[in-house]
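Before a colleague's protein record goes any further, I have to sign it off. What it holds is a sequence and that sequence's fold in token form. My question to you is simply how this chain folds and whether the tokens agree. Thanks in advance; the entry in question is below:
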Amino acid sequence: MTIQQLTRQVVDFRERRDWAQYHHPKELASALSIEVSEIMELFRFKTAEEVKEMMQQPEFRDRVGAELADSLFLLLLLAHESGIDLKCAFQQKLEVLEQRYPEEQARGRNDKWTAYNKQ
């Protein structure tokens, strides 16, 4: 399924409920922030090893999936309401990241991009 198809589904769901009146970019951004925080809450105070083990549990994976889906729902609506072609924006960002994080310098490192431009 494409981003456009997902967006159409989300917009259709919303329109059938007459919720567009509540979906201004500011409100959608706020709701998205809350949903992403709910993802973070699932992992809070856990080590990387604990998270790895938790992700093996179907019910925990389902909870993470549900929160990711909530976030995607809002992200798609925010892009739609803002007139942003999410696929295009993503591709442009990936091009910027390719420049900022040269593969030969960034492989296996997690430095901020500014560290690579100094070399």
